[in-house]
Amino acid sequence: MISIDPVTAVLSLVLFSAFAAPFVYHFQKNKKKENLLTQNLKEAAKNAGANPDQMETWRHQYAIGLDTSKKVLVYHHDGEVATSFCIPLSEVKKVSVLKKTKEVGESKKSVIEHIGLEVQYVSSTKKSILLEIFNEDLFSDLIGESVLAEKWAEIIRKHL
Questions:
Q1: What was the pLDDT predicted at 17?
Q2: Domains of the chain by residue range
Q3: How many CA atoms lie within 13 A of 52 on its CB side?
Q4: Angstrom distance (rounded) from CA 15 to CA 8
Q5: What is the pTM of this model?
Q6: What pLDDT is recorded for position 111?
Q7: Cα gap 11→56, rounded to integer Å
Q8: Position 2 pLDDT exceeds 80
Q9: What is the mean pLDDT of the chain?
């Protein structure tokens, strides 16, 4: 049997707690951001008379949702200026994924600058809207935004 000195046990517990505290703090902080983002999305939907049953958030700044019964798309972005859109799908003609790239270096490597969902309206008088999914100016790397954009474009197309 291994015996542990009480001083060693207490010291180990204190060091482990000191090591784990920043991770717990960061997790709780991100959870609060996520809840606030979801709340902002639901509030924007509520103002349009919708209640999204499919929702997704990413980067603690973006949220998208869809009320499948009322066919309303809701988008929210918490940036320098918070942006929200509530788009009735009955007014939408087409949704497509828009990727803007640039070539860098001598090898002309293609780098994604921007990914978004372009929503085109049935009415020719309404200008199309670009729902930002990724912006290189805000983030230096992709964490699945291309897949996310394709996924939501397909979900929206199914409900058009």
A1: 94
A2: 6-158
A3: 28
A4: 10
A5: 0.84
A6: 87
A7: 42
A8: no
A9: 92
